[in-house]
């Protein structure tokens, strides 16, 4: 299987958001080792491939909270979860 690295990064981050407990930007940075800006850009790009995210406000500050995948759109969540090793191999 050949995956574009940009698409693979989006799939992988969506998988992490869906599978982690209360994923926020600092947790995603810790898990991936990617820069903050990369995480933010990929989160912002997910609706472009059909994945809907929502931010769950959980605290008094405006950025306290975490992300949830609310809809995978045309993508199969089980396929992504079952192929994370392959997806990660295409990250650049």
From TrEMBL:
Question: Do you know which InterPro entries this protein is assigned to?
Answer: UCP037266, WH-like_DNA-bd_sf
Kindly provide the name given to this protein in its UniProt entry: Helix-turn-helix domain-containing protein
């Amino acid at each position: 299987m050949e995956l574009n690295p940009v698409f693979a990064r989006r799939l992988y981050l969506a998988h992490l958001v869906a599978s982690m407990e209360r994923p926020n930007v600092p947790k995603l940075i810790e898990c991936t080792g990617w820069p903050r800006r990369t995480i933010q850009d990929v989160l912002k790009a997910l609706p472009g491939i059909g994945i809907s995210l929502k931010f769950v406000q959980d605290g008094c500050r405006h950025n306290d909270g975490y992300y949830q995948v609310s809809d995978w759109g045309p993508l199969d969540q089980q396929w992504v979860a079952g192929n994370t090793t392959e997806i990660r191999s295409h990250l650049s």
